[in-house]
Amino acid sequence: MMHSILVVEDDDSLRPLLADDLQQKGREILVASSVREALKAIRESVPSLILSDFRLGDATGLDLFKAVQDLDPRPGFIIFTAFGTIPDAVNALKQGVDNFLTKPVDLDHLGVLVRKTLDLYDLRQRLHEMKNGGSDEASTAIIGESKSMKQLLSAIEQLAQTDESILITGESGTGKELVARQIHARSQRSKGPFIPFNCAAVPEGLAESELYGHTKGAFTGADAARSGLFRASEGGTIFLDEIGELPLPLQASLLRFLQDKSVRPVGSSQEETVDTRIVAATNRDLQTEVKAGNFREDLYYRLETFTLTVPPLRERSSDIPLLTAYFLNEFAREFNKDSVELSSEAMERLLHYRYPGNIRELRSLLKRAVLFSAPGEAISQIPLPDGENPGAISSDDLFGEALDLPLTSGDLPSLKSVEDRYIQWVLDKVDGNKRKAAGILGIGRRTLYDRLSE
Predict the structure, then answer these.
(1) 453 Cβ contact partners less than 8 Å away, ≥ 6 residues apart
(2) Final residue of a domain: which of 310, 330, 349?
(3) Can you give the residue range of the structural domain that contains 399?
(4) For residue range 119-143, what is the model confidence (pLDDT) as tens digits?
(5) Which of 163, 276, 277, 389 could form a disulfide with 384 if both were Cys (CB 3.0 to 4.6 A apart)?
């Protein structure tokens, strides 16, 4: 999409320089020399990104940010700052500003920040479109713009138009049920029911009755006849989650259904025809289960003809910002909080975490972060699970080995000296791995590179 950028700068020589450079890179440029002029321009046309000096004649860049932060989607926002106002810029980051750049402005660095911030704006735009796309769409929305997710969405669209049984594979927490719901919603059965059944959650003795129903008196406690979930999903879809956990006797009856679309209630001698589609899912390797004798080979080959694999989150890290924006919005509404955003450092940590629990784990991390977030401040800390926070260190190690402070006040080092010593110590501890070091220090890698170059 064509992005528009508003440059707010009261320096008459710098303003046209920035505008010309950005315009040559294919951006639509608006300019203003004050917050008053900027607000007038925004009322006429909301830009995708605002580049603003911090110190302006009539107000500050932070004042301008506060005036636009409730727009949905909010424009990207980068603040220019002189060295003396860096603390103010850091405070602006806590308020939710996307980034800041020190003067004199490095145009190459500015280009990188502009691309990164516009990417975040595109994510907010996509989130805005999903929120306003209707409840049915939101309930089955699969969030992702990565290559692997685009391929998955294309396959869903094609398979949804058939009436074949489908097997969905993928690790726990990747969203296999969401894929099943999307298939149902896109199919000709969308007006019918979608019935989920977790094959691992019901004891073997009850599973057959749950699925196929039973006649009155079929077993102790069967005081009345009952239709099963297959009958309840008539005209729609039944989703068999964790099908690798289905007991072998039930696998045989499921194979029979796939062959002739009929079920036999417990206690009955009559088979009943049912018009329903089966979508199954598993986080197990069913080929291995077949070799181990835990899964019927004939049922496996009947199901695996049309297979969809949901990629783990670690293989689609480019989708993490979009997922994060979606969940932050969800939990801000749930906990009655104003719009919540992450700092760039917190996002950096999320981007480099491995997510053994996949999307379910990311959602849980963000829910906890939003619940305990401070009003009016961007979330800067995302506590990762014990043992997964790269290079976690103890306080004893920190003060005993890293700082090595002298005992007499006359020999105490400067704050910068202590910081430099600690940064170098952390780097030594992680064998020079700058990504891990930045994660421990709670700063972005570029910030770390800047400190090292000093």
Answers:
(1) none
(2) 310
(3) 395-453
(4) 878 877 776 766 665 444 444 568 8
(5) 389
Residue that has been written with the tokens 């598993």 in this structure: 282
pLDDT 10s digits, 277-308:
999 999 999 999 999 999 999 999 999 989 99
Same domain, 246 and 97: no
Tens-digit pLDDT profile for residues 9-23: 998 889 999 999 898
Q: Kindly state whether residues 205 and 85 are assigned to the same domain.
A: no
Report whether pLDDT(438) > 80: no
CA distance readout (Å), 113 to 77, 116, 117, 316: 10, 5, 6, 22
Together in a domain, 195 and 291: yes
**Which CATH number belongs to the domain containing residue 41 in this structure?**
3.40.50.2300
Residue 211 scores a pLDDT above 80: yes
Asked if residue 174 belongs to a domain, the reply is: yes
Q: Dihedrals φ, ψ of 402, to 5°?
A: -70, -50
Rounded Cα–Cα distance for residues 368 and 30 (Å): 40
215: three-class secondary structure by DSSP: coil
Written as six digits, the tokens of 333 are 């509404």
